[in-house]
Amino acid sequence: MIELIDIHKSFGSQKVLDGLNLTIEDGRTTVIIGKSGGGKSVLLKHMIGLLRPDSGRVIVDGVDITRLGDKELNEVRKKFGMLFQEAALFDSMNVEENVAFPLREHTKKKDSEIREIVRERLSAVGLPGVEKKMPSELSGGMRKRVGLARALAMQPRIILFDEPTTGLDPVMTEAINELIIRTQKNFDVTCVVISHDVGSIFKIGHTIAMLYEGKIVEYGAPEEIRKSENPVMHQFLAGSLEGPISIM
Amino acid sequence: MFSISTEAKVGLFVLVALIILGYMSFRVGEYGFGLKKGYIIKAAFENVTGLDKDASILVAGVEVGRVESIALKDGMAVVSMRILPDVKLERDVRVSIKSYGILGDKYIEIEPGTRGVSSLGEGEEITRVEKQADIDKILRDLGTIAQDVMAVTASLKKVIGGEEGVENLSAIVRNTRELSDNLNKVVKQNDEKFSVMVDSLKNAAMQMDKTFSALSDITERINEGEGTIGRLVNDREVFDNLDRTVASLQDITDKINKGEGTIGKLVNDEETVENLNASLKSLDRSMEGIDRYISKAEQFRTFLSYRGEYLFDTSDAKSYVDIKIQPKQDKFYILGVVADPRGKRTVTETTTGGTTTRKEKWERDELLFNLMIGKRYKDIVLRGGILESTGGVGIDYFAFDDTLKFTFEAFDFDADRDPHLKIYGEYRLFKHVYLMAGWDDFISDERNSSPFAGIAIRFEDDDLKYLLTSSPIPTK
Amino acid sequence: MNRISIALDNFGRAVLSNVEEMGKILLLFVSTLVWMVRPPLKVRLIFKQMEFVGVKSIYVVVLTGTFTGMVLALQSYYGFRMFSAESLVGSTVALSMTRELGPVLTALMVTARAGSAMAAELGTMRVTEQIDALYVMAANPVKHLIVPRIVASVFMLPILTIVSDFMGIMGGYFVGVTILNINEGSFVRNITRYVDLDDLYNGLIKAAVFGLILSLVGCYKGFNTSGGAEGVGRATTEAVVLSSITILISDYFLTAIMF
């Protein structure tokens, strides 16, 4: 379980998170929605200790990670896998080396075993046989799937998805959504997904949270969200220009 | 596709650069002065203006050393000179400061001494120091001489000025001629007697030589002693007198040596000289033979060493026991065994219908063998042969008078995997005890790569050497 | 009055930000040292960087070294000819190359080639979240990205300098002996007489320090990039300028200490 308690974060004079509270439950997929540039990625980076809040606490399985040193934080991070917006594959390595990276880093497995795990993960994301390709030779969707394979390599308990479907065509979007659902079920992991793709959120989310002006303004199961009377939520789902969300 | 691995490219480049460095260091430090070889001799000068540290020391224009340091002692500039180990300087060499080049760089010139005189050793001092030519002083001396000459010519003019003088002079000349004629007759008649005389003169000279060497011993001792006598002897004037005396003695013998007259001929009798020469030569030859034999045994050296290495990442310890046989200064053989707890790994991969099975076999606690031949070029040692029971090569680079050694070894070449590469540095802590640290198998694709640290004990074993040269073992 | 105070303000701010930057670079250096001794060292990454910094810089270093030696020989020849001391051209070229020009020119060329590339590469990794990805995978970026670059640079710069020194002297030899007809014997003899092992080795020590500077600055600038593609460009430029200046300034102090 991840609990974020009263998180404040500003960059310079710009307040991004303003007293945010959120609980991510185990074994479920939580989707965080909100407008572009509204601090969703910042929120996600707080969960894994890439950013530290100005004030507030981030508690992962009972441990406040805002107070940990590098070494302890690394131990906590081993529970996580993360898929970045642009996949963040290492340009200098081929697909196999990318996926094998965490294994080489944290296990003493033999090369042959690692190769086997990589093959398994790549077929799990539907990309068998791309081991020797370089990231620059892959399409955006393939990159994301390799990124997911890398995130899965260490069999993490929590997987963070930073806008997994942004910039993909509808078919690929569907494929990724399916992949997230399947991954969540097959590996029984906790997923946190950031998205602003209305179609996707109801498909994959067990719980949906709406981030608006640095706070969570709506939180609940998809059915509840659909029925929500909150004007922010309403405008977001309708994709309307009229409403409290400014389009500066 | 043919491609060279990153490691190989880097390795090749570094190797080429190190060879260039080795070449440049060798050329620049051609005489190895940078490495502090050779022995030190000293000389005290009155004035060393313009002489720098590292100035050349030349004998007959050939560089034999460099100035190590210049210090002031009792108002004299004491120059320490580092001389090449294979250059021998006689005890009676002359040393002086000269300059060359248009920039007027100063150097020290050593004029060779007499053949056969004993050589200068470490820390000894050259006593015959020539003063630097001082133009002012030379001019002043010349002036005085000119005045003297004028006075002499004036008095001469008085004596032989008149007619009477001329007559007297011619009488003197006449008498002199008669005298020399008579003398000649006497000499001819008494040839034999003269030869006896010369012999006894020779004896006397020999005696004198002995006396002088004894005297020099005594004076050295007195020189060191600071007592009453010492002070008396150290008086510069006494020395100068002595020096002059010796010099004039030298003059006399020189003249006899050159004289082609009756006496000269006797001394220089060619047959005698030839006979003497022949017997000396045969003596020389037999000495050389003995020398060669002795030096061969001397050169032949054997070393025993034990080396233990601890590998951090794999938490293993490796032990090596080596015998190094060195028949010549620059050539050696190494025989040894290695105890490696990881043992030797053999991997076999078999592919049947698309599935690859990998079999690894570990032969644990197996003893591995080293058998290598090596050769040393200056500071670089190349060796090759069997390394840990596989074919391998190694290169060692020695620095700082062999106290530091860098080693690179490559072995276990196999088409299926990267070769076993090992690199380490070794530092001589004390005599016989060495510390080392490095990286073992650092490009291993089998995750064997590990840093290591170790200690080695290495000593020379004489018994083994005599056993190997098949000379009898010396008994007490 | 107001204008003066604004000028002072700006000056003070510039000094402060420079001091702050120096401090941050120093901190990065310290953490590099810490990660350098913490096993396991990434040998493969170090070799990759060695290839990039060293092997791939050979051509440019050979070219600059050779032509520097040649022009030095030509220039000093006209000077020495006035004293009919042409034979000193060799030692002038050799001393200048080993003590100064070899290390400094090599360092500047490698800064332009590899230092800038380090800043650009790390900058790109920063803006595409690859560095974040390292953190997320509990892998320290200093160890994976910075240590190999710094180790490789510190090691390869002296190696490249050896090549540069050698090529410079060869270039000088070519111009002096082949073109200007200086006596070959005295040309070579003056080199061996006036150049000491110390000159050679101190030059190599300098080169190692320069290698540290250029890689540290390049990594620092790249590592702290922000602002997308434009930020990467800015980081690259700043890295080259700051490294070059620091190399030239530290060269003075190193020379003052060593010779």
List descriptors:
heterotrimer, A: 248 residues, alpha/beta, six-stranded mixed beta sheet, 9 helices, B: 476 residues, ten-stranded antiparallel beta barrel, disordered C terminus
What does this entry look like structurally?
- The complex is a heterotrimer of chains A (248), B (476) and C (259).
- By secondary structure, chain A is an alpha/beta fold.
- Chain A has helices at residues 40-47, 70-77, 95-106, 111-124, 140-152, 170-187, 198-204, 222-227, 231-238, and strands spanning 2-11, 14-24, 29-34, 55-60, 63-64, 80-83, 158-162, 190-194, 207-212, 215-220.
- In chain A, helix 4 (111-124) packs across helix 5 (140-152).
- The longest helix of chain A is centred in the C-terminal third of the chain and has 18 residues, at 170-187.
- The mean pLDDT of chain A is 84.
- Mean pLDDT of chain B is 75; it is low at 471-476.
- Chain C is mainly alpha-helical and 259 residues long.
- In chain C, 87% of the residues lie in helices and 0% in strands.
- In chain C, helix 3 packs antiparallel against helix 4.
- Chain C is globular.
- Chain B binds chain C through residues 6-7, 9-10, 13-14, 17-18, 20-21, 24-25, 27-30, 34, 54, 56, 101-103, 312-313, 439, 442-443, 449, 451, and chain C through 39-41, 43-44, 47-48, 50-51, 54-55, 58, 83-85, 88, 159-160, 162-163, 165-166, 191-193, 195-200.
Task: Set out the fold topology.
The complex is a heterotrimer of chains A (248), B (476) and C (259).
Chain A: E1 2-11, E2 14-24, E3 29-34, H1 40-47, E4 55-60, E5 63-64, H2 70-77, E6 80-83, H3 95-106, H4 111-124, H5 140-152, E7 158-162, H6 170-187, E8 190-194, H7 198-204, E9 207-212, E10 215-220, H8 222-227, H9 231-238
Parallel strand pairs in A: 3-8, 3-9, 6-7, 7-8
Antiparallel strand pairs in A: 1-2, 1-4, 4-5, 9-10
Helix pairs in contact in A: 3-4, 3-5, 4-5
Chain B: H1 6-28, E1 39-45, E2 56-59, E3 62-73, E4 76-83, E5 94-100, E6 105-111, E7 125-126, E8 128-129, H2 135-159, H3 163-189, H4 191-224, H5 228-233, H6 236-258, H7 262-267, H8 270-299, E9 301-311, E10 316-328, E11 331-339, E12 344-352, E13 355-363, E14 367-377, E15 380-387, E16 390-399, E17 404-411, E18 420-430, E19 433-440, E20 450-460, H9 462-469
Parallel strand pairs in B: 1-7, 2-6, 5-8
Antiparallel strand pairs in B: 1-4, 2-3, 3-4, 5-6, 9-10, 9-20, 10-11, 11-14, 12-13, 14-15, 15-16, 16-17, 17-18, 18-19, 19-20
Chain C: H1 2-37, H2 43-53, H3 58-81, H4 88-127, H5 130-136, H6 141-179, H7 184-194, H8 197-223, H9 228-258
Helix pairs in contact in C: 1-6, 2-6, 3-4, 3-6, 4-6, 4-7, 4-8, 4-9, 6-8, 8-9
